[in-house]
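Sorry to interrupt, but I need a hand with the structure work. Leave the record below and I will have a look:
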Amino acid sequence: MMYQQAAPDITQTSLRGRILSGFAMATMATLFTLETKAYFSKDISTTLSLANSNSEQRIRLNFNITMMDLPCDYATVDVYSTVGFQKNITKDVRKFNIDEDGVLQQYEARNWHQDDVELWDPAVIETVEDLHGDGEDAISLDGDTFPYAKEEYPFLFVKFYTSNCPNCDDFAPTWEALGEIVTDTSMHMVDDFMEEKGMDYYHYSDEEYEQAVNVMAPVLVTRLDCGAYPDVCKEEQIRAYPTTRLFVDGKAAGDYDGHRTVMELVHWLSHMEAAYREPGQLKMYNIFKHASERTIRSEEERIWNDALMRYRAPSPFFNSTRHPGCQLVGHVMVDTAPGKFLIQAQSFGKDFSAHLTNVSHIVHHFSFGDIEAQGRVENGGWKGIPSKFVQSLHPLDGNVYVTSGLHQAYHHHMRVVTTEFEHSHLIKWAGETVRRVYRILSNTQLSTYRTSIVPEAKFEYDLSPIAMSYLEVSRNWYDYSTGLLAIIGGCFTVIGMLESSVALFSKGNRYYL
């Protein structure tokens, strides 16, 4: 015979053999299933490398921040870095005015340049000293006379200023000229009234005549030095100089922030009067006549101003006496170098009071990179991504930073880590071979400023030189085949050893018996 006949104990079935064979088949089937599942699944490999500085010279910075007590008129966005700076950025930046309750108003507006506002009236060629030669017509108020003036005069126009404010100095001749024009107008009105009533000038003293002029005045033009009376200005929440505020019947009716020319001021006063006085009580048109004679140099200007007087409506921002907040939304392109993103109070025509500038803010969103890529990472679902990965893309979101004291501001320090996803063609959200996002490691501190420096909301950032890469790794087919063969051989070997041990143990027991 060519082949030796197998032993009977091998060819004959037994209960023990059937049990071990069934166990072996079940084990191999389970291991086959797990190995096949592992072959078709993807493993994640994390690598660290030097960031490629040549890949992107600039990256996108996205922000949605609400300044809780800084009006949009003064809130500016600046970016500084070690290679350059961008000041008062307006491109791709939107501002939403917010009232004191935090409700968005019904309109939105892009940044507007206050550089366009005329800071003084070129038609007023006299100096303040020249205008004071015959006395001060813009009455100087103090802590005692200010409440009295608000109570006694139905229309009170106050300029709040400081002695160390260059913009206040530039505006001073224009303001004094306005006061002089109002005084001249009031004197003409008193003279016309006395002539109409047949009253004798010589029966009244100079003090009585001056009092009559003030009573007859359509508006009382005054000024108050916030450097000398800081408590008054703090109570009125004056935060920028100069601030020109109209009080009607003792209550603040509006701040004027338009062109600082006599005619523009008179136009605005006329419209404010129309809003608070009955048609038969209007007096501002008398000022308009004298202001035209004083400041208009040509007939064309006169025709133009007549048209404005009849048809012009005041700008919406003129009527705000409160200090609402501002929501700034947009993005800027920043250099891939250490830098800082600032939101601060700035104005071409105003100086700000440092102790009243409040830069408390709410961070709705702050991140770097492509917003769409972030959204796909958040919603696409790669199970291997660490649980806190998505949160690290924008760790400041939803946080509120409120300062409780004067001369304080929160500063945010961030290390930006470039994170890339390579060869992720099986991931649902991946549309490219490499998708890049930026993780942020942040730290926030409350900083205290010197009393002369205006606080600012500061976001400092520095791109890490180390980049992190997430790579999908799949198994080779020959690794899978080797694993299957190893399962088969391993199962037979283990089951054979188990069967031999059981058989040897059984024979030993029979021999003993």
Q: What stands out?
A: Residues 106-113, 310-321, 424-434 have pLDDT under 50 and may be disordered. The chain is about 35% helix and 30% strand. The longest strand covers residues 408-422. The radius of gyration is 40 Å.
